[in-house]
Amino acid sequence: MGQIYESFISVQTPEEQSKEKTLISLPKLAAELMKSGHPLELMDGDAAHVPLIGVSAVLDELVKILGDQRVFVLSILGIQSSGKSTMLNAMFGLQFAVSAGRCTRGAFMQLVRVSEEMKELKFDYILVVDTEGLRALELAGKSNQHHDNELATFVVGLGNLTLINIFGENPAEMQDTLSDCYSGLPEDEEALGGQPTNGTTKPVIQQKCPGSKESHFQQSYSV
C-alpha cells in the first residue's frame, strides 16, 4: 500500500491527486486500521525498501487521530528463527505470523493500547515493531552482511527500546552487526530531529534457551 501511494504522489500533479479520492484517502484508512490494532508493513522485505512518503503520511494521520496521546516505540532484533515474533505475541497478545525459516519479511508495526493498570509507565500506546531475522539462509551471500547491518541500524534507530533476541548461549554472531549498527547511528542532535543523543536507544539482550518456542528466557543484559 505504501509503495502504491508513494508512486501515485510522485507522478501525479496536485490537481490530478484531488480527483483520486480513493488513493488520497489510503493513509487515513491505514491509520484507522492501525488504531484498531491491525499491523502495517513498515519495510518491504523483498525490496528492502521503506516507502517514506507513504509511511510518513500514515503516521501523520495517526497523530491526528491519537491527538496528544504518548507513544512508546518498541522494536526487536535477532537471528532468524530465534523466536522474535513469538515473544512479541506472548508479551502483548498479538498475532504476528510465526513459523520456521524466513517468516517475517521486512518490518511490521502494530499499535497496542496501554491498559489503565499500566498508565504509570507514562505513555498511552506502545508501537511494536517486528522485524525479519538476521543471517537468513535465503539471503546467504556477500550482500547478506550488508543487508543485516542496514536492517539493524534501521530497527535500533527506530525504537525507544530495542529488544535483541539471542538464540542459544553465544552472542558472538550478533556482535559484529551491533558494532556496525551503532557506528552507523547519527551522533549529532540535528540528525535526530533535535532529540538528545544519549538514551535514544537502550537495547535489552534476551537470552533464550534452545528448544521450543515456548521455552523461557533465562537471562537479560542491558548494554
Automatic annotation (TrEMBL):
VLIG-type G domain residues: 68-223
Polar residues bias (residue ranges): 195-204
Database matches in Pfam families: URGCP_GTPase
Taxonomic lineage: Eukaryota, Metazoa, Chordata, Craniata, Vertebrata
Molecular functions per Gene Ontology: GTP binding
InterPro entries given in the database record: G_VLIG_dom, P-loop_NTPase
Protein name: VLIG-type G domain-containing protein
Region annotated Disordered, chain positions: 185-223
